[in-house]
């Protein structure tokens, strides 16, 4: 019944692959650089993380997916708390997109479409299509369940893939500034879901 936004499936998969590769061949970073323990087994090459232009495209696609879901919820929900949360998602994610656009313009970076950003767009479209077929409490529950999954996956992606992969200091700074807002959104939607469960 719960529609789970798959925006970060590709990132989560990349993260899992990256973790697996790191476990086999890049534990030196966590262990302080001692490679002696791994000398007996050739390690596979670590999965390459996204490049900065790809990260820029991922950030914009991720924000756009949640902005569109927020717009739908703000117009379709009859629950004041859901509408308020949806409006916050629109405002906050539009703010991140504006900052990201200004930054890539300043840096002369052209966001580069990639499988993850394309998957985010497709998943966002699927989520909207699913939500449009719902109404009332069913709509609210589906929207909030999706937002919970979306923000948890976004937080995981920032921590496990985007921050470890980003090269440009200013782009890294934007991700670091965005992270607390994602945590706040996640906590907000958790409280909202809990309160809806009690009503």
Structure characterization notes:
With 199 residues, this protein is mainly α. It has one domain (51-198): Ferritin, core subunit, four-helix bundle (Ferritin), CATH 1.20.1260. It has helices at residues 9-25, 52-76, 80-107, 115-132, 136-165, 169-198.
- Estimated radius of gyration: 19 Å
Give me the secondary-structure category: mainly alpha
User: What composes the largest sheet?
Assistant: none
* Low confidence ranges: 1-46
Report the CATH C-level class: Mainly Alpha
Range of helix content: over 70%
CATH-defined fold name: Ferritin
What is the averaged pLDDT score?
A: 82
What is the H level of CATH, i.e. the homologous superfamily? Ferritin, core subunit, four-helix bundle
Order of helices and strands: HHHHHH
Descriptors for this entry?
single chain, 199 residues, mainly alpha, Ferritin, 6 helices, 74% helix, disordered N terminus
Question: What's the arrangement of secondary structure elements?
Answer:
Elements: H1 9-25, H2 52-76, H3 80-107, H4 115-132, H5 136-165, H6 169-198
Helix pairs in contact: 1-5, 2-3, 2-4, 2-5, 3-6, 5-6
Give a quick rundown of the structure:
This protein has helices at residues 9-25, 52-76, 80-107, 115-132, 136-165, 169-198. By secondary structure, the chain is mainly alpha-helical.
């Amino acid at each position: 019944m719960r529609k789970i936004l798959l925006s970060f499936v590709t990132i989560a998969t990349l993260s899992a692959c990256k973790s697996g590769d790191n476990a086999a061949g890049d534990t030196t970073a966590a262990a302080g650089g001692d490679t002696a323990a791994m000398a007996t087994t050739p390690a596979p090459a670590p999965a390459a993380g996204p490049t900065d232009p790809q990260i820029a495209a991922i950030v914009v696609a991720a924000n756009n997916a949640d902005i569109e879901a927020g717009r739908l919820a703000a117009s379709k929900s009859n629950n004041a708390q859901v509408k308020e949360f949806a409006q916050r998602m629109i405002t906050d994610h539009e703010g991140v997109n504006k900052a990201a656009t200004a930054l890539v313009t300043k840096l002369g970076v052209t966001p580069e479409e990639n499988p993850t950003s394309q998957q985010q767009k497709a998943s966002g479209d699927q989520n909207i299509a699913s939500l449009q077929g719902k109404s009332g409490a069913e709509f609210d529950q589906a929207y909030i369940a999706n937002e919970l999954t979306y923000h948890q996956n976004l937080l995981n992606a920032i921590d496990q893939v985007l921050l470890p992969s980003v090269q440009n200091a200013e782009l890294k700074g934007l991700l670091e500034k965005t992270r607390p807002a994602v945590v706040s959104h996640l906590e907000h939607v958790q409280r909202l879901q809990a309160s809806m469960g009690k009503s």
